[in-house]
Amino acid sequence: MINLNFYNTSLTSLLVSLAFISGCGVTSRIEPYKQSQVVVGDGEGVVVLARKHHASHEAEQRIVDCISEGLSNGDEGLNVHNSGAFEDKLYPWFEPSMAPITPTDLSQLLEKENVREEVISTGVRFLIWLDGSTDRIASGGGISCAAGVSGAGCLGLGWWEDDSRYDATVWDINDASSAGTIHADVNGRSVMPALVIPIPLIARPQAAACRGLTQQLKEFLTSPNYGNGPNLSSQ
Amino acid sequence: MHEMANKSNLKSIRYLMGMVTIALTACSTSIWVEADFPQPLVDRLPVRMGLILDDELLDYVHYEELPRQAAYTIQIGEANELMLGQLFQSMFLNVEEFYEFPNIQPEMEDIDGILWPVLDRFEFDVPVGQRDEFVEVWMQYLIRLYDPDGQLVTEWTVSGYGKAELLNREQALNRATVVAMREVGATISTKFSDQPDVQDWLQDRQISTVLSVGGIPQ
Predict the structure, then answer these.
(1) Where are the beta strands (DSSP E) in chain A?
(2) CATH number, position B58
(3) How far apart are CA A106 and CA A101, in angstroms?
(4) Does B102 reside within a domain?
(5) Do B186 and A58 touch (CB under 8 A)?
(6) Smallest Cβ distance to A93: which of B41, B43, B179?
(7) Whole domain around residue B181: which residue ranges?
(8) Which positions of chain B have pLDDT values less than 70?
(9) What residue in A sits closest to B44 (Cα-Cα)?
């Protein structure tokens, strides 16, 4: 009788798990907007910097590193300056409280001769400001585990949903203007069904946001006519 | 040479004291704040300064027991020396360091003013809940400017805030402290000469410099 009950419960859990698993995955929305036809030229570089002036959030260093690495990789890899080295060379002008918020602020900053010379020496033509974060927006379910003389096991289902929202704003240093913005909103639902052993099926929206933004930024910086409306996809 | 040996001995003693403190507090979390602070990209002010980095600043240790967490011992002395020494060296024509307020001798008459920075407050928060993602640090320094004769010109309060993602507690606390110190350095290097009392003092220095070479200010 006990075995039959356990069998029924397990079967129900399995069915619920399968229903959740079929609903899990990553949904992404990328909206590009380019307001000029500028492209990166020979010998010109880019730098990816995190916006850090918000009290509540800031773009994580790992996505800054991920995008920087992605932009520099491949056959058509760009010349990407290390973000930390750039902030150090131009210290204190790119610290959270001092960093230019608008292209007008950048224009005023570049009026300082020593700052302009230092920027020129880095070879950086485009600043890519990354603003946003990855946050857990929902979670639920539960898993119970027990151990006895004959063995141990878990039963249940846990799930959580993460949302990665980032804006990559590209500034052209040559004329201290904004060249455009790419908005990425990637939602990922992860599930962990447990039928004796918990099996985590983890969606990684931040990694998907990194891949999407990197691909779009490469096109943005190399194609003059880039940016025609939103790009929707789900995996 | 003798002074250099004394300075080296003092550094060794400070290092040993720090190590002993860490050893005594082995059950708690101990952090020795480490970083390379960049030189600020600012124009040098045309004055020659004395800089007092006293024992209180160089041996600064913050100890705090957080509720429901471990006790934290944070050594900030060496980071203070690195950050402030390099910062002021980049801001002025010349900087001479002292361990206490100097008795101005005739051969030291080329000092226009003396700076005495004090780390007044250090506060931090390490989150416990899963939803809190950042370690936060808030620091407040007092920057005192004196005339060479010991008269206080102004006392300027400078604060800095830093946060860092909570991946590893020690590393995050170190990173947040460094971010806060960099913020303090950014404010000092860009806003020092904008302080009204400092502006008046700088104007007096320039007038006396012009007079000393025989000119009359317009």
Answers:
(1) 25-34, 45-50, 79-81, 124-148, 151-172, 177-198, 231-234
(2) 3.30.160.150
(3) 8
(4) yes
(5) no
(6) B41
(7) 2-212
(8) 1-27, 104-109, 129-132, 207-218
(9) A114
